[in-house]
Amino acid sequence: MSYSGERILLTNQRESRISRYRFWVMLVIPLAALLFQIYVPLFFRFLKFLDLPLLVVIYLGVMRRNPVSGLLMGAAVGLAQDSLAKTPLGMYGIVNTLVGYFAASIGMKLDVENVTMRLLLAYFFFILHELLYWIMQRALLRELPPFDWQGWLVTGLLNALVGAALFHFLDKLRVTA
Amino acid sequence: MESFLNRYRNITVLLLTILAQLVLLSLQVKNDQDVGFIRSWTVTAVSPLAKLADAVRGGSIGFVRDYIRLHDSDAENRRLQQEVDNQKLQIVFLQNQLNTADRAKALQLFQAKVPSKTLAASVIMTGLGTNSMVFVDRGSGSGVMRGMGVLTADGILGKVTAAYLTASQVQLVTDPEFAAGVISGKNHARGTLKGYDGHLCKVDYVAFDDKVEPGDWFYTSGDDRMFPSGFPVGIVKSVQPGQPFKEIMLEPSGMFRGLEDVLIVLDSVHQEIPDTPPGNQPVYVAPAPPASGDAEIATPAAQGVAAGTDADRLKAAYKAAGDAQGHTFGEDAPHSKPPDFTKLAGPGAATKSTAPANPPATKGTAATKSTAPPVQPGGGQ
Predict the structure, then answer these.
(1) The pTM is what?
(2) CB spacing of A83 vs B22 below 8 angstroms
(3) pLDDT beyond 90 at A59
């Protein structure tokens, strides 16, 4: 199967290919992403905009094309994020669960090897993540966070760019047939 | 039922997961209690990695910082070392310049004081395979001829053995084939100077009954028609009795300060042989300046004081009295009338009578000339 820049939709089910990863990769990559998010901004504050755990959830979701796996990964990473944040457990968990589920569902329909598609997916899911989190803050915690959509657009773009590079790196950890 | 679950498995799992988290969330919000074990698990899982990362970071940063610091230190060390080396080179260069200037000045002064006509030259190279031959930068084009003596301010150095147009070959006094007539300053023992081993010289043909001791100075005698008489040759290092001649080893003084600037004797004017070593010759000390800076410096004649000691002045006074009365000391008949010494003139009169032989000097340099002892080469050094 050849992938071109013009094709972004898969025409049939056989064209979708499930990427497989070793168990330690599935464990270490999310942990490393969490570690990055809690440790690196201590020294490089400007990197705080990066949401690597979310990007990892998106990547694993779209590449494995398994909604259950995606949502469980999202839930685990989200709960871990909650555990390391001040938020009640479940806030990031629910949002990441949804992102993992939708990423895996969309990954079955799209050519996720395409760089542009990856950029768009990362951008879309980042915005979705921020929006869902904002809604949950208002609905479940009765908080009134600002609706900073411009900030979301900008940080979404930056995260998408970093995500594209990260996805390229994570591709090398796939198990080849 | 089974097919229904299979069909909606994904959405079912999603809903269950979200429901579970919602319950978890609501429990926390409602009871205002945290679910500690989940946080504990997460923190327990992540904190070792964070510690490891921190250790790696600290070690890496420390290593990089040390490396940069050491790298900078090394670079700075090299720069400082280079600077020190440059300074050392500069010091050596300046010292050489100073030495050269000193030597040139000493040689110039020496040249001005020596009555012989000399030509300044520089040693430009040494002879191949020998330490007792050099080349100087003056040749026949400058009037140098074979056989001319070569001096330094400290003594004789050698003789010109070949004069080329732009350079001359000089045979040093330490060459075994070199020979020059010498005479000791103390007892005037004559001999022939010869090179010995490239460093010392020997004095041949000094009769066994001539008195020469270690430490005596030898001077050129002028007998060789090469060097004018009176130039220092060297100092006696050892004297061995022998028949019929003494064996005298001598350290040549012309090479005390190396071989760089020399004088070639173009026209010889003989000098007196000093009886004191160059280093021990009397040093002229100028009279103390007058109290007032504006005062005229009076000459000895103007002051009416004769040069010399009190005895000299007294002798001159008696001689003047005798001359005035027509008496010649030591020549008149034994029972002739002695001069009337009651008519002794004062010191001023005695000076006046001797003044024509010693014309009054003008102030300053002339006064110095009239009283200064003859300056010998190497004197006072």
Answers:
(1) 0.44
(2) no
(3) yes
